[in-house]
Request: fold
Amino acid sequence: MNKSYYGKLIFEQSKPGRTGYALPHREADTHTLDELPESLRRQNKAQLPEVDEPTTVRHYTNMSNNNFGVDTGFYPLGSCTMKYNPKINEEMAALPQFSRLHPQQDAEFVQGALALYYDVQSILSQIAGLSEFTLNPFAGAHGELTGLMVIRAYHMKNGQHQRTKIIVPDSAHGTNPASAAVCGLHIVEVKSKPDGTIDVEDLKPLLDDEVAGMMMTNPNTLGIFEHEIPEISRLVHECGGLMYYDGANLNPMLGICRPGDMGFDVMHINLHKTFSTPHGGGGPGSGPVGVRRGLEEFLPNPRVVKTAEGRYTLEHSDKALGSVSTFLGNFAIIVRAYAYLLSLGKEHLEMAGKLSVLNANYIKERLKDYYKLPIGGLCKHEFVFDGLKDEYAGEHGSPQHVSTLDVAKRLLDYGFHAPTIYFPLLFHEAMMIEPTETESKETLDAFIETMKKIAQEAKEQPELLHTAPHQTPIRRPDDVRAVKDANFTYKDLTASK
Ligand SMILES: *Cc1c(COP(=O)(O)O)cnc(C)c1O
Reply:
């Protein structure tokens, strides 16, 4: 990517008295003002930027050009499945027949929308090998909470109130323990073996009559298929617990194997990841939850059901765990997922899974001489490096040492989004790479060459990496402060200091 990609933005464009509009003077305006009580009137003029229209348009357009997305470049963010989002999905979601619906409309008048909703429920059930899905939850984490509430409701119905323990692997995504805690469950951690999969021997002593269930991600956050699932699932069921499948990594499994067949009772799917909806910057998402036969009654209200006459209605059940969302969830995301599912079809969905695995293995194999690969062998759709190899990174603790953060920052200079870094927590210099199936070999090769070049730079000019990025509009913001003390004012506050 050429350097001009990152234009410098000037934020202070205000000139006193400058406007982008002209309003006619009307007597009524002053009149109204007189009627406004003194206490409600502003004493000083509002401090707003005074700019003309072209300046404003340019400012926002340039700012949008500095926004990185899947539509501007390669985005190998592990765990997030940043695949290309086909534009036909957007067109479908924007159809006025969908976008102008009102959630309070009577079911009789929105049969088409409900049919689509019902179809997605059914397709997901087939893909997952489960009995029924609800599309109500707004995100993966929300799906986790909903799924765990189903598990709780099931135990409560059986009089098993003491089942409050949930087993979560040490490699789990942070939302797993967080959702479990919100659900009022006690989290018990199970360890991973050096090969990255769950240690069954560590699991056994944790199993007793207080176990509500176990959460698993498969392939796990290291991109490794949990090959001992049948045994784990047998053990957890034997002690009366249920199996929860975090389906955020469903992509490589598409059309190849199904959580339901592996013994899972409840799962969520991240529609915005696996079924391609734009989700940079945290949303909007959709986290449908599926259950095996026998657990349907606990799914949240409302449920979309099909009557014997072929009509669609909303059903509210007393047995349900209650409601988890307003109305039916993020409907526009469901439309996008539907468009994606229909455009790929059963015959091509499987290709997505296989190509995502091929692409990840291709990058891994071509870079493993430069970056530490703590877990070798075949990965699924993503894999984890543990930083640069020592010969490139320099000695740990020495001033020359080049960290994973330095490599990630340097990638920005070359126009690539950085991989997920410092997660999973199992490795100190973790760098989690997920290319997805939608990238061409040329893009993968360009990324590989850049990663090699960065390794060489690390060895020869470590300072260049310590101070990277050099081409971006801002350099290294304090990322903790940026989150905790976000400041969105248009004024350059540092200038007055
Ligand atoms: C993304 C992700 C989640 C959370 O999903 P959100 O939709 O971001 O709430 C949970 N688990 C794993 C493994 C994930 O990658």
Confidence is low (pLDDT under 50) at residues 1-6. The chain is about 35% helix and 10% strand. Residues 79-80, 139-141, 173, 175, 217, 221, 246, 248-249, 270, 285, 287 surround pyridoxal-5'-phosphate (CB under 6 Å).
